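Protein entry
_____________
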Amino acid sequence: MQSPLTPTTMQSPSPHITTMQSPPQPPRSPPPPHTNTTTTTQSPPHHPNQTTSKSPTPHTNTTTTTQQRAIIFPQQKTWSASRQLCENLKSSLVMPRTAASNTELYQDALPFISVCQPANHAKGFLWLGGTDEVENGVWTDFEGNILNFTNFDDTYKSTKRSCLIMLIPPYNEKWDDVSCGKTYSMCVPCQEEMSSKNRTVLKMRGLCEEDENAAWFTLHQDQGEAPMFKGFTRYRISTNEAGGGWELYDLWKNKTVARYPTHDSSYPLGTHTWELVSDYDICDMRSGSTRVLTLSGCYTDEYTCGDGTCVDLERRCDLRVDCPDNTDEIGCDKLKKPQDYLSSLTPAGVEPGPLAMNLSLTILGFSEINLRDMMLTVNLAYTLSWFDQRLQYRNLKYFDQINHIQVDEVWTPRVEYLNADFPNVHTDGLLLTVGRRSPPEPDDPSLHSHDEIFEGAKNPLQLYRRVNAPFSCNMKLQNFPFDTQRCHLLLRLASARQDFLSFVQLNVSYMGEQLLTEYEVGKVTVQHIQEEDYSVADITITLYRRFWFYFTSTYVPTVMLMLISFASLFCKRENCDLRVMMALTTLLVLYALYQQISNGLPKTSYVKAIDVWCFFAITFIFTKVIFHVVVDVAVRVSYGIRRKRHVSIGQHHHQQQHTSKERVNSWEDEIEKIPRLSLRLPTNRNNTTTTTTTTNNNNNKVMVMARIGYTVVFLLFAVVYWIIVLLNVDY
């Protein structure tokens, strides 16, 4: 029988240990690391099931309250594989602390020398739990505690080798050091607590036992024989009589129920396929079938790798390889659905009524705002979430992007964009994930893999999609360019009518630039509406037009053109060509400017504010052109009338002079006539000058009245126009 390893304070260890004094406790979560149930610093390396309080002097002798033993595994393994085997059993390689414990270990290992000694080493056969990797020649255990007791052979010299071994006879109980690489393979001594409280408990998953204790085992070893796994109540795992494998023996029915064939003398730790050799004893399966079973010493919050290594359960399927055999990232399908699942059928609501659909929509930005066609091209991303209580999920993580599911495997809602221009809608591929919102369900030990299971009624499916689509926007441009537009994006759930499927929680946010080229983005809101018995989400985007561009490119130039045309009223009356050309040129420039503005605006059946302004400016300048023409024509007509009057008066005087010539033939009469003519001519000039002055005064009065009239009209229009515009501004 195996002898326990005891500290020096124990008098004489019991030569045989066959049973435990009390049944072991069930597996539990691992205690804090590096603790022990004793306060001794002479204790062997840490065991995960123990608690210790450390002492600043690690090698003083104190009374122990626990016993330990060595389990010898008669199978050659490399140093790293040996250490891993002990760690899988929640143990560590044995490191004798005293001469007595060294002798006991040597005696326990002697029966296996023929099996344990490698062909490439003449003296070594058993690994020990010491190393000098930190400092050459300074030997410590794996926790860094310096060894006070060593038992090296006389020929030992400090080298760069870093691992301890025990030597075969005649080097009785002596040690040596060898390389820690894969050069040598020797047998493995693992240290185990003997107390029922701290003893390692191994659990076998996949047995379908109602009594959980029936699948629990402890290590047991008789003197000179290979270790076996003794069950708490019903089963035993040991090497079969024919050798070359392991068998699961039912003590209640007194028969072997399953076998695990192996040809390398490996132990059944980890996940393996067992062959059933009896009918309906394991999971109601027939003889000849196979069943995957997992045996390990892992805690309830640890995952068992294929080779029996234990890793944190949260590391299962986290996209990072943690197991030596990569099995923690194998079989990571998140979805667990029943065989009768119908992906074409809308799930029933968790609460009475239609299935609740939650929408979270983010507007990423605007590709284009086409004012002419009244189209708003939006880059958006939305997430639809719902619960499908028919489903279950495995190993969900708090980071939702890891919890990916194939879209075509489950029911997903179909969304229609009601007011989108469908030929130009571009969408990315769908991404379906599961959000972890609840703790996992209780573990099911009938499953060979320790996977966390989550209910579909508590953890939502999340459908993510990005869309670039032009949406029609019915813009109201009466107050353009001082207008505010409210564009709507209509998303309809088209998979089912509102009696079966309805929006419940709606959230929308805007992540793009606030100030665009022509607009300032205001509030973005969402509301639930009903259209044709379908549930519709109405997203409203408020856009405030940035009018300063139009103010500086339209209003200011038109005012300047009107001032230029107004300046023509101050030109001299005689310079008719200049006055007319000034007014006409400004009219043509204004019309070209208005045409340019109009080409970028949609055609509407109503008049826009900018149209009213431009129409007034055109009319304002056009009337000046007409005014100058009318004034010029009036002056010309008045001048013609005056000229005819002067010509008729001149002819009358000429007839009188001719009669006088006939009557007076004397030289004196001729002399008298000359002065008369000279006197009449000045009289006619004075009359003409007076008439011209009167006409000029009349023309000046007309110009002054025109200046005053145009000024009053402009100011009156401007006041009325801006009052109406400002009253209709929606900010």
Summary: The first helix runs from residue 79 to 88.
